[in-house]
Fold this sequence. Notes:
Elements: H1 3-14, H2 23-46, H3 51-56, H4 64-71, H5 74-86, H6 90-106, H7 139-157, H8 164-186
Amino acid sequence: xxxxxxxxxxxxxxxxxxxxxxxxxxxxxxxxxxxxxxxxxxxxxxxxxxxxxxxxxxxxxxxxxxxxxxxxxxxxxxxxxxxxxxxxxxxxxxxxxxxxxxxxxxxxxxxxxxxxxxxxxxxxxxxxxxxxxxxxxxxxxxxxxxxxxxxxxxxxxxxxxxxxxxxxxxxxxxxxxxxxxxxxxxxxxx
Length: 190
């Protein structure tokens, strides 16, 4: 899934029963698993690597895969949830829960770019037949499922957000996600 989709879906699933102040840990927990990817891409562009090399070679190299494994670890997310509960720190529990939701949403939508979600317990990668982006691996289906989930989450969230700024950010995020996916997945490749 794309990072903005994780933000919207996690917020819809986790924010309901908690204070609006808990929005930030939820958003951070949805973002943390992809944070290393942004650093990686910035590094690769700084190295002036072509897009093909970035995504076909550098992405799969060490130490990047080891770094990605840390941020995408379900056990570490569960640890955060447990520590938050044990020490009565709801923000830490929500941060961990949001990370775990991110991982669970990624599991069925990553094919050859699957993460090591069980690090440090195991380095196994669960390869899904469906990709969220790769049309050679049912990417149109994966993208459609993602957009539908984001739209449903937005419909749920929109009336529950208190400010027009929050509502505008949500609408812009959903609109951009939908348009980008539509362009990437449904326009003919040339």
